[in-house]
Amino acid sequence: MKQELEDYFKRKYARWREYKNSFPMISWDEEVPSFMYVGEINNENYVQWKAIPKVEIYEFSEIRDEYNIELHPDIKEYFNSYWFLELTGRYEDYSVILEPVVPGMGLRDFYRNLKEYYHSHGNQPKYIPIGFESDGFIILVDNETGEVLIEDHERGTYEKIAENLAALIKEM
Questions:
Q1: CA angle 145, 150, 152 (to 5 degrees)
Q2: Which chain positions lie within coiled-coil regions (predicted)?
Q3: Cα–Cα distance, 35 to 120 (Å, whole number)
Q4: CATH 3.40.630.40 corresponds to the domain 2-171
Q5: Could you say which of 5, 22, 34, 132 has the lowest number of CB atoms within 10 Å?
């Protein structure tokens, strides 16, 4: 997983250098620690950012305690590899937006999305939300197998799109 993330960021940086001659840019957020940003805020309130390898390890004890589940190792590795502000890209016909891992904000959004998903799906921990697709579908990891799926909540259907998170990220 860490290697796939590293390769993803290298590809992202190369595209941005070719397109804008900069690192990726994102809207400045005062809650994000300054070490995540590269350079100064521009006149449109955007700033460059760069992924940083993580040292701090999340144990996910809150999830273990509240839901009595152990997260799939791929999910743990995803959240424990890098700090990053955005992970987006194309995968087959999908425009994928995965959870960012932002220092100082912990897993706040991930926990909130998990809680909402858990309660809206009969308190079943089989699938773990890890992101979204631009058409509003939820991207999930099967917590038993590690497979990545897209859920169409309105139809109540699930479509497997990748063998695992690393395979998804590798192709984005």
A1: 130
A2: none
A3: 37
A4: no
A5: 34
